[in-house]
Amino acid sequence: MEKLLEVKDLEVSFKTYAGEIKAVRGVSFDINKGEIVAIVGESGCGKSVTAQSIMRLIPMPPGIIKKGSIIFEGRDITKLSEREMEHIRGSEMSMVFQDPMTSLNPTMKVGAQIAESLIKHQKMHSKEAWKKAIEMLKMVGIPNAEKRANQYPHEFSGGMRQRAMIAIALACNPKLLIADEPTTALDVTIQAQILDLMRDLQKKLNTAIIIITHNLGVVANLAERVLVMYAGKIIERGNLDDIFYNPRHPYTWGLLMSVPTPDLDKSKKLASIEGTPPDLFAPPVGCPFAPRCEYAMKICYEKYPEEFTVSDGHSVACWLMHPLAPKVKPPVGKGVTLS
Length: 339
Ligand SMILES: Nc1ncnc2c1ncn2[C@@H]1O[C@H](COP(=O)(O)OP(=O)(O)OP(=O)(O)O)[C@@H](O)[C@H]1O
Ligand SMILES: [Mg+2]
What we know:
The chain is α/β, with parallel strands linked by helices. The chain has two domains: 1-92 and 175-339, Rossmann fold (3-Layer(aba) Sandwich), CATH 3.40.50.300; 98-173, no CATH class. It contains twelve helices and twelve strands. The chain has helices spanning 47-55, 82-91, 100-103, 110-122, 126-139, 145-148, 158-170, 188-205, 216-222, 240-245, 250-257, 298-302, and strands at 3-16, 19-32, 36-40, 63-72, 75-76, 93-96, 176-180, 208-212, 225-230, 233-239, 307-311, 314-317. The strands form two sheets. The protein has an eight-stranded mixed beta sheet with strand order 6-7-8-3-9-10-12-11, with helices on both faces. A four-stranded antiparallel beta sheet has the order 2-1-4-5, with helices on one face. A hairpin with a 2-residue loop joins strand 4 and strand 5. Helix 4 (110-122) packs parallel to helix 7 (158-170) and helix 7 runs parallel beside helix 8. The chain is globular. The two termini are 28 Å apart. Adenosine-5'-triphosphate (ATP) binds next to strand 1, strand 2 and helix 1. InterPro entries: AAA+_ATPase, ABC_Ni/Peptide_Import, ABC_transporter-like_ATP-bd, ABC_transporter-like_CS, Oligopep_ABC_C, P-loop_NTPase. It is found in: Cell membrane. This is Oligopeptide transport system ATP-binding protein. GO terms for molecular function: ATP binding; ATP hydrolysis activity.
């Protein structure tokens, strides 16, 4: 597998009047060409900040990349000029945001927004770009594309806007697409269509996709590999089977057990993870999950766990994996099975 992106020891903070928010605290991961990787974790754990760092869209100030490198096809994104970044954004990597209305231009026809990117990055003439824009709208499944290309974003439904965003993001055939909660605002059937669409496009165009989501159903449907984040760190990583059938971090167990399933006994409450994530102004020295972890040991409060290898590609930062730690039986729930 050929590597497309290598994020190494990335640290991102926001310097605010109240102090420094340590949003991303030493994150490393690779993405191969054409691969689909999901980043999951609860609100505020640093998923979007990680994505925005790759796109170099962190507002600076207050944001600052304190440490680490982001190597995209041999170039360190953290060291490029804004001009170089402008070229890369849209042409080599692009992003789909949660709310398309905030990133589509309300005063510009949808077709023109796609064409604009083609004219800028691919130096197409306007006629050719307009033709390609219609083609892209067709590709993302917008019916009546010729007519729709002449409409403004407010004339599109939510699902269509999301498709239009994907069309814009893919117009220049980027090598990497980052989709940050791309389906959260949509109803379930449209969600499924958008996911199908992303999967098809990945197959057709060999685009690598980083999908950020709260929704483990989306992960199971789309991703090949999963990174589980907690308080600015990756606490477990593995392929789909590793994470769904042999998860090792108590936080991952909690995540999986909080997924509603149709056969859920209505008299039982859905499991939730008690407590709140740590304060990112002063993150703890030990495992950030320890205060919420029913298996926490003394060392968990004192030292951040090493990354233990479970199997090839599956690793976890948890002291329970230490050979001297007591053997813990994971709670067996839907999708959580003992290995
Ligand atoms: N522009 C900013 N200024 C100050 N703090 C910020 C800024 N952007 C993000 N943060 C902080 O960084 C931390 C990580 O935020 P991030 O947006 O990455 O969370 P997330 O995992 O994407 O959460 P969600 O699932 O809610 O989208 C949070 O504590 C957030 O408040
Ligand atoms: Mg986010």
